[in-house]
Amino acid sequence: MCDVFSLTECDVIGFDLDHTLCRYHLQETCRLLYESLAKYLVEQKGYDKDLLNVTTEGWDFCFKGLVLDFEEGNLIKLAEDGTILRATHGTKNLSTNEIVQHYGKERKWKHFNNLNSTFTRSAKYYFYDNYFDLPGALLFARVVDLLQKNGNRTLADFSKDLISAIDHNYNISAFKENSGTFFPSVKQDPGKYLQRCPDSVKAWLQNLKNSGKVLLLITSSHSDYCRLVCEHILGHTFEDFFDIIITNALKPGFFSQIPHQRPFRNLVNDTEDCNGLASLDKPGWYSQGNWTHLNDLLKKMTRKSTPKVVYFGDSMRSDVFPASHYGNWDVVLILEELESEVIEENEVNSKDIRAEPLEKKGKYEEQSIRIPSATSHQWGSYFLDDYKGINEVEETQKYTWCSSCITTYSTITIPSIEAIAELPLDFKFQRFSSHKPRTIGYYPKAPISLMKSHQKE
Hints:
By secondary structure, this protein is an alpha/beta fold. It is 37% helix and 16% strand. The protein has helices at 26-45, 56-59, 96-103, 112-118, 134-150, 155-170, 174-177, 182-188, 190-193, 199-210, 223-234, 291-302, 316-325, 336-349, 358-361, 401-409, 448-456; strands at 4-5, 12-15, 23-24, 67-69, 74-78, 84-89, 92-93, 125-127, 194-195, 214-218, 244-247, 264-265, 267-268, 271-272, 284-288, 309-313, 330-334, 384-388, 395-399, 412-414, 429-430. The strands form six sheets. Strands 12-15-11-10-2-16-17-20 form an eight-stranded mixed sheet, with helices on both faces. Strands 7-6-5-4-8 form a five-stranded antiparallel sheet. Strand 5 and strand 6 (84-89) form a beta hairpin. It starts with a strand and ends with a helix.
C-alpha cells in the first residue's frame, strides 16, 4: 500500500453528518442531551431530582472512549492490550488496589478481545465512542451514586428506564411529534447547538463535485432531522452538494453482510415506503439500506468494477471500523481531541488566554465548564496514560485502546473538515502504517501528548 493518501485518487467521497459535516456547540449539546434523559427519569420514573443538577466538576467526567462494564457496574478506560488504566464506580475513582480487586492482578478486562475484534454491543458492556454518548456515561455514573445512597432500584431497573428515556426522546416519530426534550430544543433554536459550515467547507464540497467525484451522505439520523441540520449548516440548497443521501442508515448495521442486510426504502414526505427496494437504480435520497446495494450503484455511477471510496466519520464503532473492515474503504477520522490539545497547549504557553479565538474556546470558558473534547482531569489523555502499579508506586505509560484503534482502522485523522478545506485536492497526506511511528497519520500534526512520548522513546 502507498504511504500517502490523496482525495484525487478517490472516485467517491462519503460523509457522516453529526460531528463530521455538522459540528455541534459541544457544551450546549451535551447539556441538552443529558437533560433530555435525566428529565425523563425524574419526571416519568420518579428518580431523585438531584439528577438534574450537574456541577462544573461533574462535566469533567464526560470523556470519549470509556467502556461501561455492566457486570461490575464500573466505567473503565482501556489500554491497547486490554489492561484497565483507570476506573470508577459511579463517579468515584477506583484506586489501583481496588481495580485489582475487581479485575485481578493483571487488570485485564475479560471482554476486551470480543470488543476489540468486532465492536459489537453486548448486554455485558457499552462503548461510549461519540459525543452524543458522553452524557449517558455521566448519567449512568450519577445513578450508581444515587443507588448506593438509597438502594431502592437496581442497575437492571435503570437500564430499562434508560432505554425508555432514549425511545421517548429519539424514536422515529419524535421529531415530527415534537416529543421529548432534544428535538423541540434544537428546532426552536438550531444556532444554539449547530455550527454553520464555513464558506471554505462549502467551496471544498463544490470543488469535489466539480472534479467529478460522487458525493455521498450516510447518516443514522432520520430524514426530518437530517434536513433541519443540513439546511442550517449548508443552506436550503444542500441537496445540490450530494449525489446520494442515505438517512436512517442504522450504522454500523448498514455494513452488515447477507442475510442481515436491510433493503433501501424510498421516502415520501419523510415517511419510509413500507416496500423495500430490490436494488438501487439511480442516485437520490433513500432510507435504511446496505453497503452491498450501494456499492453496486457506485459501480454503475463511476463505471468501475472497484470504485475507490473514502468516508469521513467521527465514530469508531459506527463509521471507522465497519467502513474500513467490511467496506474496505479508506476512512478519515474526525477527532476534535486533536484541536483541543493544541488549544490547551496554547493556553499553557500563553499568559493571555484571551488571545484564543472565541469560537475555539467556547462561550462557557468563563464558567470553567470543560469542553467535552478536552483532556479530562479525572480520565486523563485520550491517547495515552500512566499505568500505575500496586499501591500507586510504579508508573509507566501505555497507549490507550482508542489511540491504537485510530492507527489501525483510519487512513488519516484530522480535527475537522475545515482543517483541510483550503488544501489542494491533490494534497498528499501521510497514511497511518504499522511500520511508521504512531505520530504519522495525523493532520495537521499529531497529538501533543503522543509527540512528547515519541520524543522520549
